[in-house]
Amino acid sequence: RKKPGDRYVHSFIQLVDTHHHQYRTVSYYAQQLHISSGHLNSVVNDFFGISPKKYILNRNILEAKRMLQYTKYTIDQIADQLHYENTTYFIRVFREHTSMTPLHFRKQTNP
Question: What is the average pLDDT across 99-104?
Fold first, then answer.
C-alpha cells in the first residue's frame, strides 16, 4: 500500500544513486527534495527500516566494493573518487561497515 512519503523515497533513491559519490549528508538530499531532514528521516525509516544516513552509506560502500572488485584503482584512487577526506578515513568507514579492510576485500573477491 502506497504511503504519502513514498514519492520522496523514490526520488531519494534516484538522487542517492546519482550523487552518493559526492554527497553523503542527509541535509543535502532533504534540500534537493525540498523537505526537512527530519521528514526525510521519517519517510526513509518507514520505507526501509533504516535511516537515510545508513542508506547513503550502504550505497557508497556498495560502489566501493564494485570498484575494488572490478577495477584496478588503488585504494587511494577509490577513496578520492568517492570523495572521502582521506584514505585513512575511507579505510576506517569501509572496515566498520564490512568488518574487513578494502585491500582484504579485494584479495578475497579476486583470489
Answer: 97
